[in-house]
Each structure stands twice: as structure tokens, then as C-alpha cells.
Specification:
Number of strands: 4
Shape: globular
Strand content: 35-45%
Largest sheet: 4 strands, antiparallel
Helix content: 10-25%
Structural class: alpha+beta
Radius of gyration: 13 Å
Order of helices and strands: EEEEH
Oligomer: single chain
Number of helices: 1
Number of domains: 1
């Protein structure tokens, strides 16, 4: 995770030869996770590697846990 501007974090996940990059935009009480780029995830016209969504769900769950603590 790297802060790239006020209210925006870039997250990069590297698993073996795969890479997913997302932008996390946030305000005081809300956030969104948006696809930015990927490598070796077969992204094409809105389709992507079957594991991508579970990785993003894991990220979302981790953010939710931090917000509760």
C-alpha cells in the first residue's frame, strides 16, 4: 500500500507471476476499491482471472476489520 494523494492509496498484490493493482479512494466514512492494472491475470474487456475477485474480497474484509478496531 502506498499513499499517492490525499484520499487515495495504491495497493499492489503480487502472487507468484500475477500482479493486481488497485486504487483505494476514501473519505471519512466511505471507501471504494477500483481496478487500476494487472499482469498475467488475463484482463480483457471486463473479464479477469477467476481469483481476482476473491483477492479483492480479502482486501475489503481486511479494511473492514481495521475500521472496526
Amino acid at each position: 500500500m502506498n499513499v499517492i494523494s490525499l484520499g487515495t492509496i495504491r495497493g499492489t498484490l503480487n502472487i507468484r507471476s500475477h500482479q493486481a493493482v488497485v486504487l483505494i479512494a476514501f473519505k471519512e466514512k466511505e471507501y471504494s476499491i477500483n481496478y487500476e492494472s494487472s499482469q498475467n491475470l488475463d484482463y480483457y474487456q471486463g473479464q479477469i482471472h477467476k481469483n481476482y475477485n476473491s483477492w479483492i474480497r480479502n482486501l475489503d474484509n481486511a479494511i473492514q476489520r481495521e475500521l472496526i478496531d
